[in-house]
Design a protein that fits this description.
Elements (H helix, E strand, L loop, with lengths): L2 H14 L1 H4 L22 E3 L5 E9 L4 E6 L8 E6 L3 E4 L2 E4 L4 H6 L5
Parallel strand pairs: 1-6
Antiparallel strand pairs: 1-2, 2-3, 3-4, 5-6
Protein backbone atom coordinates (compact mmCIF):
# COMPACT_ATOMS: atom_id res chain seq x y z
CA UNK A 1 0.00 0.00 0.00
CA UNK A 2 1.37 3.41 -0.92
CA UNK A 3 1.91 6.21 1.57
CA UNK A 4 -0.98 8.20 0.07
CA UNK A 5 -3.38 5.26 0.51
CA UNK A 6 -2.21 4.68 4.09
CA UNK A 7 -2.77 8.36 4.86
CA UNK A 8 -6.24 8.26 3.27
CA UNK A 9 -7.09 5.18 5.34
CA UNK A 10 -6.02 6.98 8.53
CA UNK A 11 -8.13 10.01 7.68
CA UNK A 12 -11.14 7.81 6.88
CA UNK A 13 -10.73 5.94 10.17
CA UNK A 14 -10.60 9.25 12.04
CA UNK A 15 -13.76 10.54 10.37
CA UNK A 16 -15.67 7.29 11.06
CA UNK A 17 -14.53 7.09 14.65
CA UNK A 18 -11.66 4.67 14.96
CA UNK A 19 -12.76 3.38 18.38
CA UNK A 20 -16.03 2.09 16.92
CA UNK A 21 -14.06 0.18 14.28
CA UNK A 22 -11.65 -1.29 16.81
CA UNK A 23 -8.70 0.58 15.31
CA UNK A 24 -5.92 2.51 16.97
CA UNK A 25 -6.13 6.30 17.02
CA UNK A 26 -4.80 7.61 13.69
CA UNK A 27 -1.46 9.39 13.86
CA UNK A 28 -2.94 12.52 12.30
CA UNK A 29 -5.29 12.76 15.27
CA UNK A 30 -2.43 12.92 17.78
CA UNK A 31 -2.26 16.01 19.94
CA UNK A 32 0.87 18.13 20.14
CA UNK A 33 1.59 16.68 23.58
CA UNK A 34 1.86 13.20 22.05
CA UNK A 35 4.33 14.31 19.37
CA UNK A 36 7.95 14.69 20.45
CA UNK A 37 9.57 17.14 18.01
CA UNK A 38 13.09 16.30 19.19
CA UNK A 39 12.69 12.72 17.96
CA UNK A 40 11.81 14.02 14.48
CA UNK A 41 15.09 15.93 13.90
CA UNK A 42 16.83 14.63 10.80
CA UNK A 43 13.73 12.96 9.34
CA UNK A 44 12.09 13.73 6.02
CA UNK A 45 9.02 15.95 6.28
CA UNK A 46 5.74 15.57 4.38
CA UNK A 47 3.10 18.27 3.97
CA UNK A 48 -0.64 18.01 4.62
CA UNK A 49 -1.09 16.57 1.10
CA UNK A 50 1.46 13.81 1.70
CA UNK A 51 4.15 15.36 -0.51
CA UNK A 52 7.80 15.34 0.52
CA UNK A 53 8.69 18.97 1.28
CA UNK A 54 11.99 18.86 3.16
CA UNK A 55 13.39 17.74 6.49
CA UNK A 56 13.20 18.55 10.19
CA UNK A 57 16.29 20.62 10.93
CA UNK A 58 16.14 21.46 14.66
CA UNK A 59 13.88 22.21 17.61
CA UNK A 60 13.86 25.70 19.11
CA UNK A 61 12.03 27.77 21.71
CA UNK A 62 11.84 25.02 24.31
CA UNK A 63 10.14 22.60 21.91
CA UNK A 64 7.37 24.99 20.85
CA UNK A 65 8.95 25.73 17.47
CA UNK A 66 10.47 23.42 14.87
CA UNK A 67 12.91 24.66 12.24
CA UNK A 68 12.27 22.97 8.91
CA UNK A 69 14.54 22.89 5.87
CA UNK A 70 12.15 23.42 2.98
CA UNK A 71 13.39 21.70 -0.18
CA UNK A 72 16.41 19.49 -0.73
CA UNK A 73 19.89 20.01 -2.06
CA UNK A 74 18.42 19.86 -5.59
CA UNK A 75 15.68 22.42 -4.89
CA UNK A 76 16.45 26.01 -5.91
CA UNK A 77 15.59 28.47 -3.16
CA UNK A 78 15.70 26.00 -0.30
CA UNK A 79 15.64 27.71 3.08
CA UNK A 80 14.97 27.25 6.78
CA UNK A 81 11.43 27.94 7.99
CA UNK A 82 10.00 28.22 11.51
CA UNK A 83 6.84 26.15 12.13
CA UNK A 84 4.87 25.74 15.40
CA UNK A 85 5.39 22.26 16.89
CA UNK A 86 1.61 21.87 17.22
CA UNK A 87 1.38 21.58 13.42
CA UNK A 88 3.35 18.30 13.36
CA UNK A 89 2.13 14.70 13.59
CA UNK A 90 3.50 11.23 13.01
CA UNK A 91 1.79 9.10 10.36
CA UNK A 92 3.41 5.71 10.64
CA UNK A 93 7.11 6.45 10.38
CA UNK A 94 6.58 9.74 8.50
CA UNK A 95 6.74 13.19 10.06
CA UNK A 96 3.87 15.25 8.64
CA UNK A 97 2.52 18.76 8.79
CA UNK A 98 -1.14 18.83 9.77
CA UNK A 99 -2.19 21.95 7.82
CA UNK A 100 0.72 23.41 5.85
CA UNK A 101 1.38 22.56 2.21
CA UNK A 102 4.52 22.78 0.09
CA UNK A 103 3.34 26.12 -1.37
CA UNK A 104 2.83 27.59 2.10
CA UNK A 105 6.33 26.55 3.20
CA UNK A 106 7.91 27.84 -0.01
CA UNK A 107 6.35 31.27 0.48
CA UNK A 108 7.27 31.53 4.18
CA UNK A 109 10.11 33.88 5.09
CA UNK A 110 13.42 32.23 5.90
CA UNK A 111 14.82 32.26 9.42
CA UNK A 112 18.43 33.19 10.14
Amino acid sequence: MTFARKTAALILAASLGSASLGLATPALAQTAAEFNPQSAVGNWLYDANGELVGSVYEVADGGRTVIVQWGSYLTPGRHLVSVPAADFAMAGDHVMLRTLTANALASTSAVD
